[in-house]
Amino acid sequence: MSGAAGHVDPANKKIALLIALLALVLAFPETLGKAAQTTALSKNIEAANLWSFY
User: Fold this and answer.
1) Phi-psi category of 52—alpha, beta or left, where left has phi over 0 and alpha has psi -120 to 50?
2) What are the Cα distances from residue 8, in Å, to 26, 35, 40?
3) What is residue 2's predicted lDDT score, i.e. its pLDDT?
4) Could you give the CA distance from residue 22 to residue 9 in angstroms, rounded to a whole number?
């Protein structure tokens, strides 16, 4: 192990922050996509139920 205990390279901190920020940015579209998928599936089931009524 190199360096003093508790010492963190500032470059590593910046990289870790960038990765965390990218993960956060990518999580939003994933969540919105899942919500849209659930809505579409619900509408499809509703349409199928309406057709089966006739």
Assistant:
1) alpha
2) 27, 39, 47
3) 54
4) 20
CA distance 41 to 35: 10
Which residue has tokens 């590593």? 12
What CA–CA distances, in Å, run from 20 to 17, 26, 40? 5, 10, 31
pLDDT of 1-50, one tens digit each?
A: 455 556 778 889 999 999 999 999 999 999 989 999 999 999 999 999 98
Q: Which amino acid, one-letter code, is at 45?
A: I
Q: What tokens does 33 get?
A: 């996509």
pLDDT score at 42:
96
